[in-house]
Amino acid sequence: MKKTTRYGGLGGAFFLALGLATVPGNASADPIEDFTTQPHPADTFASAWSYFPSNEIHISQGGTFKFGNYDVIQGIPSHSIDEYIPGCTAPPYKPGAGKDCPPTRFSSGLVDWMQVKTVHGTEKLPKGRYEFVCQVHPSMRGTLVVE
Fold first, then answer.
1. What confidence tens digit (pLDDT) does each residue in 78-116 have?
2. DSSP state of 123
3. Distance, CA of 74 to CA of 24 (rounded, Å)
């Protein structure tokens, strides 16, 4: 008869100890830094179907900003920031929307989990307030303020 040795319990304990050793000792004020143990590169990000740190983003005229997707809820693969155009970038959609909808002036495109992308088009906007929406989750809305 062949002898076998079981390492399951010992191996599990080793990996648990290894995992606990990587938990940061000091909690920072930034939940993403706590999760990744490094500063995140996004200026604003999505988490739990919301934009953080605020639904209102301020930039200087001619500037851009970076948008990250740190939403850890399963089933939410992508988020975006797109100029809100009623009937075009959020419901209710108009029939034939592809023909009568202007292009958005700014967009991040779809941003997958743990990705960061620059929101393009903001550098061309005049001063003012611009509403935005998530392509995937139209209840996520905010305002871009160009100063």
1. 899 999 988 787 766 665 545 678 889 999 999 988 889
2. G
3. 24
